[in-house]
Amino acid sequence: MAMFSLQRATWSLQISKTSRTFAVSFTTALPRKHRPKHCAPDSPSVSSTPFRSSLYENSSRRPSKHSQARSVFTSSKVYQEQRAQGAAASEAGSSKPSPQAQEVQDLTEGFLDQPVLLDEGARQVDWTRSFHGLSSEAFSPEAKEILLAPVINDDVEIKPDGILYLPEIKYRRILNKAFGPGAWGLAPRGETIVTPTAVTREYALVALGRLVSVSRGEQNYYGPENIPTAAEGCKSNALVRCCKDLGVASELWDPRYLRKFVKEFAKETFVEHQVTKKRKKIWLRKDDFVKYPFKEIKY
After folding, report:
1. Which residues contact 20 (CB under 8 A, 6 or more apart)?
2. pLDDT tens per residue across span 222-238
């Protein structure tokens, strides 16, 4: 049995992320006296062929029949071509903008929601400019009784600055009770206008196919990300103003009622911010309590 000591041994490993393969090359050289005669003076005596294998060949995640289908690299040129193709495909995919990014709209410049104008000869009423049915006849006695009913004191809320108001959902419930869900609606009369601090739009209140009132709603906002919420608040504000013409909660515009309500159901108290320690005076209902981050204090 003959034993040889290697003069030189080299190996290299090349991994491809795109084709999920790796190539191993191993080269050895015998001492000059043990080289076969047919070998060139400076050529290695033993040279291994680059071998291609799958990264998942020894993994239990891929069945063995897939690992048996792997082929052998014929030369390093094949690997270089695969690597170049994968890099080109990755660069093309990253440079292409996504469809979602192309459709993003800057709401600070407006909603671009101008209502569609109907033709002059259209049989459908164009509520963007029509006053069809305005003051043509009174509503039924049943609807009149619901619309003109006295406001319920338990439904009235008070803001910290002392302003009384009825939540917008209360107005919607009154209209649903008087006309029925689907028998009334708000028709926009123009596009949404966005200023640096507020959102405004004109709406028309339509009930039973007749125009009832037209009013412009408005809502302040404190950042571009709050513009959609301000647009919804603008619509509710227009509804409240339109309902004044129907007599809904008309007591809230009566100074005598306001003074009487504040005397009987509201109170004024001093509060302190628990973080900044700033103090101020606010209004709230007598049956309500001070909420965090404020705390009621006494001078």
Report:
1. 54, 55, 56
2. 999 999 999 999 999 99
